[in-house]
Amino acid sequence: MRSFTRPFRRVITVASAALTATMLIGCSASGDTGDAARPGQQERNVQVVRDAFARGVGGEDGFFSILAEDVQWTVARAAEPTTYTSRSEFLRDGAGPIQSRLSEPIRANVRELVAEGDVVVAIWDGTATARDGRPYVNTYSWAMTMRDERVVRATAFLDLVALGELMARVPPA
Question: 2-169 maps to which CATH number?
């Protein structure tokens, strides 16, 4: 049964991410586009996000270096979303407990970056080695609002079962 449920969960995660991206981008098209109104800013936002993913998802010098100090980062959960209201809070309480269980930053395989106005949606797969030597693999969809080449607001969707397995299996460093 377990071998059936994991692929099914992944399909649901990716389908949910695609639907969310479509809804968020559709909503942003009618809203204030801020910096994206400048010619080329939408393309520049995509490049900033692409370059940040290329540095790995982990420490402050990787992807998280493009977070604004006052970022609003929400982890979507079915029952109760969690929102971090600053870069330092997110790095300490959101990303920190995950990173402390990994022996390396998460390597991102970005499947798709979609942009509309000041919103960039990334659908990506992340892989890393946990401190117990076993792999950590997850699929993500992050909808990010950009301003001045910084992420000022994000909503993150991910496979919370895979994350829960990591958190239960590997004690923090």
Answer: 3.10.450.50
